[in-house]
């Protein structure tokens, strides 16, 4: 039997000034969600069921940018996206533009299992969710007070990188706005995307990659996208091969600058260099993060069918956690 392993993330590109209490809160959420996956794997659950369950937990907690707590569009609404992939036969499902489905990752699973398609979006995805009897809620359920404030700040601030989870008011806001003129105070990933300036870059996607005791791999990714994004914008998270990928060799979930991840098909590239270059998992991850992202900033988690866990990122921090069958477990943010 293979050794099971699990990795999760809550996004790459962390504000280096994130308050200590917010760091501890992030670690508590990661540890709780990681434990959900560990308990399922110890009970013999299949990888596909585990990644869905863990991402559902992450979507339900408002700390990270998925499900409740998703980043807001310019119109002040939430448009979520998610994908899931089964390494056995490379089956997959994905959704975009979801605005009422409580757990988008479960809708992506239904697209894979219950439809003839791999990807549904906007009204079609919403209609399918209702037909499948999935739980839906008003769009206001996903909107938090912090994010309403951050959207207002985003519209006022112009091209600044903010960690959207840190509510800035009063003197903090004035200080942040004063720093806008000095781009050295902000990560380059927040200044330009696809060659164009953006208002606020909030990369805190969530994801999970798992190999179960049979050696089967699966991955899932979910996000609310960018704070202050254009309505209708689609990132890497629902795109198979870019934000999510699973096959017989490994499972991968990505996070960060979506447009860069899309251009380099980052998740698939990890599997490709394992298959074609014969690299072990961590070396494959390191190679792709270093060589494939061009000038983009991103991170990823991965597991192999042999029970290995790996991660990599080229930005300031990544919320992450992992556990293996031999008892190893950790959560972290920085290098």
Automatic annotation (TrEMBL):
Site positions for Cleavage: 204-205
Keywords, sorted A to Z: Autocatalytic cleavage, Hydrolase, Protease
Keyword Cytoplasm: no
Quaternary assembly: Heterotetramer of two alpha and two beta chains arranged as a dimer of alpha/beta heterodimers.
Active site per UniProt: 205 (nucleophile)
InterPro entries: Ntn_hydrolases_N (IPR029055), Peptidase_T2 (IPR000246)
Protein name per UniProt: beta-aspartyl-peptidase
Pfam families in alphabetical order: Asparaginase_2
Catalysed reaction, written as an equation: Cleavage of a beta-linked Asp residue from the N-terminus of a polypeptide
Protein species of origin: Miscanthus lutarioriparius
EC number: 3.4.19.5
A GO term, aspect molecular function: beta-aspartyl-peptidase activity
BP terms from Gene Ontology: proteolysis
Residue numbers binding substrate: 233-236, 255-258
